[in-house]
């Protein structure tokens, strides 16, 4: 039997809101998360000119699926955006990689022939829906069998970041220098208008709210460690506690959406593809270190794609914490000069379920600005997982 020709999944539109502080004082705090996502969906339709009735599905990443983000927020936002009632939607959770996984599922659906037109999106309002509020006080999300496998128990991500900094021998100064660089790059990108094409202003906010250029190593050195506690100090006596609010990503609000379809459908609709989804993968990793899965995920996606690290023109690596990106660069050999060239989550923010779609939107935009061919995106995820995706600019 002859082999079936592959159907290319192409990105024809990508948009995001500016990212706001995930606090009561944030510019987007007054926006209900359903409306926050609906805004990106409407902007995507307006900018591409697509008839929303053609959309086969809307796949949305959201991490804390509780309260205002419960009840399948994807479907609620589709209706709030004014899409026809015939357009379905589903909400998924792969922790911080949720909307990068949404992109993967969307592309895989197109490649398999299950979809012709699909939207991958993400949303998180961390200021309105508190992280971990989907677990009621006193509830055990792990169960007895898992506790037997890991009798010492799991640890918060901040402590995992501390373990990574210690294992890769990354100094406080190195971590803070990386954080300062993220802010400087994001500020320069904002000033130069490099985010303009991807932003859909909302609630009077037309820029990412948390960028703070002009900091100094001496200034950041005054900050106390953010995650120290006595019990963890006894469990990990060799940690010298160097993770602070400055070299971590802040609580954030935002949404993003990408329109993905087959190359044939894009041609029929007279839409210009921006990039094709070249290769996707996801891996599991040590749930204690938790945040190092981006290293094997990068190796795996490159091997699947038949590419080398030197073939990649731009990298987007989620800056959950400074040591995550620095350890990844050390072990993969990736060039930090090609990584998060417009700044990363330490400066821009990390609205959990929205971040994967936000990074992809930014990477598509940056590839066109720089003329690069291949972009690689990867994100660490709670529980020890990581997505990696390679796209090719068209």
Automatic annotation (TrEMBL):
What CDD domains does this protein map onto? Answer: thiolase
Domain Thiolase N-terminal as annotated: residue spans: 10-263
Catalytic positions are 96 (acyl-thioester intermediate), 350 (proton acceptor), 380 (proton acceptor)
Q: Does the keyword Transferase apply?
A: yes
Q: Is-annotated flag, keyword Transferase?
A: yes
Domain Thiolase C-terminal residues, every copy: 271-393
Q: Which UniProt keywords apply?
A: Acyltransferase, Transferase
Show the InterPro entries listed in the entry.
Answer: Thiolase, Thiolase-like, Thiolase_C, Thiolase_CS, Thiolase_N
A GO molecular function assigned to this protein is:
acyltransferase activity, transferring groups other than amino-acyl groups
Q: List where the protein spans the membrane.
A: none
Family designation? Belongs to the thiolase-like superfamily. Thiolase family.
Q: Which PANTHER family match?
A: ACETYL-COA C-ACYLTRANSFERASE, BLR7806 PROTEIN
Q: What name does the UniProt record give this protein?
A: Thiolase family protein
What is the organism of origin for this protein?
A: Williamsia herbipolensis
Lineage, uppermost ranks: Bacteria, Bacillati, Actinomycetota, Actinomycetes, Mycobacteriales
């Amino acid at each position: 039997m002859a082999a079936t020709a592959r159907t290319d999944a192409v990105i024809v539109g990508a948009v995001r809101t500016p990212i706001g502080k995930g606090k009561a004082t944030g510019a987007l705090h007054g926006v209900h998360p359903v409306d926050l996502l609906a805004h990106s969906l409407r902007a995507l339709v307006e900018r591409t000119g697509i008839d929303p009735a053609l959309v086969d599905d809307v796949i949305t990443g959201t991490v804390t699926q509780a309260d205002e983000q419960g009840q399948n927020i994807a479907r609620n936002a589709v209706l709030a955006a004014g899409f026809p009632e015939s357009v379905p939607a589903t909400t998924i959770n792969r922790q911080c990689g949720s909307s990068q996984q949404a992109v993967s599922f969307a592309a895989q659906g197109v490649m398999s022939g299950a979809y012709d037109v699909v939207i991958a999106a993400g949303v998180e309002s961390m200021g309105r829906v508190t992280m971990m509020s989907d677990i009621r006080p006193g509830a055990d999300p792990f169960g007895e069998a898992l506790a037997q496998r890991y009798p010492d128990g799991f640890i918060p991500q901040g402590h995992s970041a501390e373990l990574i900094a210690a294992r890769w021998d990354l100094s406080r100064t190195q971590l803070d220098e990386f954080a300062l660089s993220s802010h400087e790059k994001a500020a320069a990108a904002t000033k130069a208008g490099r985010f303009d094409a991807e932003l859909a202003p909302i609630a009077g906010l037309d820029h990412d709210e948390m960028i703070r250029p002009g900091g100094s190593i001496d200034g950041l050195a005054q900050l106390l460690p953010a995650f120290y506690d006595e019990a963890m100090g006894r469990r990990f006596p060799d940690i010298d506690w160097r993770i602070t609010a400055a070299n971590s990503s802040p609580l954030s609000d935002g949404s993003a959406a990408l329109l993905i379809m087959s190359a044939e459908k894009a041609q029929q609709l007279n839409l210009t593809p921006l990039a094709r989804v070249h290769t996707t993968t996801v891996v599991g990793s040590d749930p204690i270190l938790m945040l190092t899965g981006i290293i094997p995920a990068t190796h795996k996606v490159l091997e699947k794609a038949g590419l080398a690290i030197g073939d990649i023109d731009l990298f987007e690596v989620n800056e959950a914490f400074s040591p995550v990106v620095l350890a990844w660069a050390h072990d993969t050999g990736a060039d930090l000069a090609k990584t998060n060239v417009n700044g990363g989550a330490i400066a821009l923010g990390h609205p959990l379920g929205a971040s994967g779609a936000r990074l992809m939107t930014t990477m598509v935009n940056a590839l066109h600005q720089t003329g690069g061919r291949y972009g690689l995106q990867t994100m660490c995820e709670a529980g020890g997982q990581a997505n990696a995706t390679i796209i090719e600019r068209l």
